[in-house]
Specification:
There is one protein chain. With about 375 residues, the protein is of the alpha/beta class. It has 2 domains: about 15-250, Aspartate Aminotransferase, domain 2, CATH 3.40.640; about 250-375, Aspartate Aminotransferase, domain 1, CATH 3.90.1150. Helices cover about 35% and strands about 15% of the residues. The chain contains 13 helices and 15 strands. Strand 4, helix 6 (about 135-145) and strand 5 form a beta-alpha-beta unit. It is globular, with a radius of gyration of 21 Å.
């Protein structure tokens, strides 16, 4: 059967290990020069829009919503085809989440559905770049109107939409650097924004502390003095992990190329299969393919999942519609709310996709999928 193939895996080389070791041998472990360098390096991939590094993609979403000033009574319009954190962090800020349906082919937030969901209480429209394919950002920005557009780009750092890099279009963009993502800091994330939004996110990731005497209410207290004007949390990503991130960013372009090669091989190999539907790529999209989201038709997704897992191929399903989680069910959300998302979920199966996959690994996955239809 061969070794177990996970659906995603980090790609760590000796240069990454040395970058981390260099920090461990130095004076800084937490917030030091490697943080500033990593944030600067990230801006090189966002069209120059600055970044704030945080401890996870979830922390990035939480900090972004806090930066947006989200509070009780506000609404966030978002996609259900995402990990629960996109919605949960908005709820934790006191907002009401309004789920709008996705496009049937990309599983990204449908601008028409989002437009129908926007009200005078909408503070943020949160799009998700599902599988690494950028959302319809221009249309969604128009839909948002006076609200802020947040791009949950956990899957898509290094991608572009109509020639503009992910991170340069939305008012707020969030990244995740979990090991299965397009680059890793082990755990980590970032908020990308400009001006006051960036500063609010930066303050939130450090307890909301105000150290600038000119901004303090009681600056004469003493040289040790610091104040909290708005609540924040400790979401600081340490130097040791930021060093790993900077090292990984040097290979982001090669990661992107290899993911695209594997993605293209799968699509070509399954083109003649009637029982599946392969992912689409919209004109103007330059994805970094985080997932290969195969659609298994005719109610056979579970059977395909079990078949491939028995072969040691670690397929996954990404994701159950967010409002299916009991925590949202208990808030009154009901199944049937977003039919396209629920149909997509019923068919979706993520095949292994990460840069270290060998050609024989890819052949093994292809053979496993094709064998399912010969059985």
């Amino acid at each position: 059967m061969g070794d177990f193939l996970p659906y995603g895996r980090q790609s760590v080389v000796d240069e990454d290990v040395e970058a981390v070791a260099a920090v461990l041998r130095g004076d800084w472990l937490t917030t030091g020069p490697a943080v500033a360098r990593f944030e600067s390096d990230l801006a090189g991939h966002t069209g120059g829009v600055p970044a704030v590094a945080v401890t996870s993609g979830t922390a990035a979403l939480h900090a972004a919503y806090a930066a947006a000033g989200l509070r009780d009574g506000d609404e966030v319009v978002t996609s259900p085809m995402t990990f629960v954190a996109t919605a949960a962090t908005a709820v934790l800020q006191g907002a009401k989440v309004v789920f709008a349906d996705v496009e049937a082919d990309t599983a990204n937030l449908d601008p028409a559905a989002a437009k129908a969901a926007v009200t005078s209480r909408t503070k943020v429209v949160a799009a998700v770049d599902y599988a690494g394919h950028p959302a319809e950002l221009d249309e969604l920005k128009a839909v948002a109107g006076d609200a802020l557009l947040l791009e949950d780009a956990a899957h898509s750092i290094g991608g572009a939409w109509h020639g503009r890099p992910v991170g340069s279009i939305a008012d707020l963009t969030t990244f995740s650097f979990f090991p299965t993502k397009n680059l890793t800091t082990a755990e980590g994330g970032a908020v990308v924004a400009a001006g006051a939004l960036l500063e609010r996110a930066r303050a939130f990731r450090n307890h909301g502390l105000v150290r600038d005497k000119a901004a303090q209410r009681y600056p004469g207290e003493g040289p040790w003095h610091q104040e909290v004007h708005e609540f924040g949390l400790n979401y600081r990503l340490p130097d040791v992990l930021c060093a790993l991130g900077s090292s990984q960013l040097e290979r982001l372009a090669s990661f992107k190329r290899r993911r695209a090669e594997i993605h293209a091989r799968y699509t070509e190999a399954f083109a003649d299969l009637d029982g599946v539907r392969t992912p689409v790529c919209r004109d103007g999209a330059d994805p970094v393919w985080h997932l290969y989201a195969l659609r298994v038709l005719d109610g056979r997704r579970r059977a395909m999942f079990d078949h491939l897992r028995e072969l040691g191929i670690g397929v996954q399903v990404n994701y159950i519609p967010a409002y299916w989680h009991p925590v949202f069910e208990d808030l009154g959300y009901r199944r049937g709310l977003c039919p396209n998302a629920e149909r997509f979920y019923a068919e979706e199966l993520s095949l292994p996709l990460f840069p270290a996959l060998t050609e024989s690994d890819v052949d093994r996955v292809i053979d496993g999928v094709r064998a399912f239809f010969r059985a």
